[in-house]
Amino acid sequence: MASELRVTGTMVWYYYVCKRQVWLVAHQLDPDPEDDNLEYGRFLHQHAYKREKKEISIGHAVFDLFREEGENLVIGEVKKSSKHLTSARMQLLYYLRELKRMGVQATGEIRIPEEKRVVRVMLDPESERELDRAEREILRIIYLDKPPKAEKTPLCRSCAYRELCWA
Ligand code: SF4
């Protein structure tokens, strides 16, 4: 099983939220599908910016294509709040780097419709170094025999894994 594990954009997202989530996701322990936060996230993903919504899947990365600007693609994610902005930014940078490796020039946007906010995201040498560091650390975590110990933080209250961690 371990040989099939690989870093994905989702894992990058979880890495910046909670290290334990990285392990749970990598080992395919799905969160509660009825969780309100997941439901709302799905609703937003389906309905926000519906008129221009296009989804692109390249390799194992799936993301929204917002528009083309000359040779440049603008890809992004719709988020329900800026609470996890660092995670969202790093996940998007991961996608931008995937595209760069395929020879596709792209920049990113994180759209937060409820806050009427758009955050531009660009890949640069510093962010690539940070991604390298995060990927090494994610691999270290997912090859652990057991998930890192749960540590209670304010984020646990709205986490879809809270039943698993704290029941
Ligand atoms: S409930 Fe808390 S410790 Fe458990 S996965 Fe979620 S954020 Fe991490």
Keywords:
167 residues; alpha+beta; five-stranded mixed beta sheet; 5 strands; binds iron/sulfur cluster
Describe this structure as you would to a colleague.
The protein has 167 residues and is an alpha+beta fold. The protein has one domain: Lambda Exonuclease, Chain A (Alpha-Beta Complex). 40% of the residues lie in helices and 19% in strands. It contains 6 helices and 5 strands. A hairpin with a 2-residue loop joins strand 2 and strand 3. Helix 1 packs antiparallel against helix 2 and helix 1 runs antiparallel to helix 4. The longest helix has 18 residues. The chain is globular. It starts with 8 loop residues before the first helix and ends with a helix. The mean pLDDT is 82.
Give the strand content.
15-25%
Question: Cα-atom Rg, whole angstroms?
Answer: 16 Å
Give the termini distance in whole angstroms: 27 Å
Strand count, sense and closure of the main sheet? 5 strands, mixed
Please state the overall shape, judged from the principal axes of the Cα atoms: globular
Lateral arrangement of strands in the main beta sheet: 1-2-3-4-5
| CATH architecture label | Alpha-Beta Complex
SS content category: alpha+beta
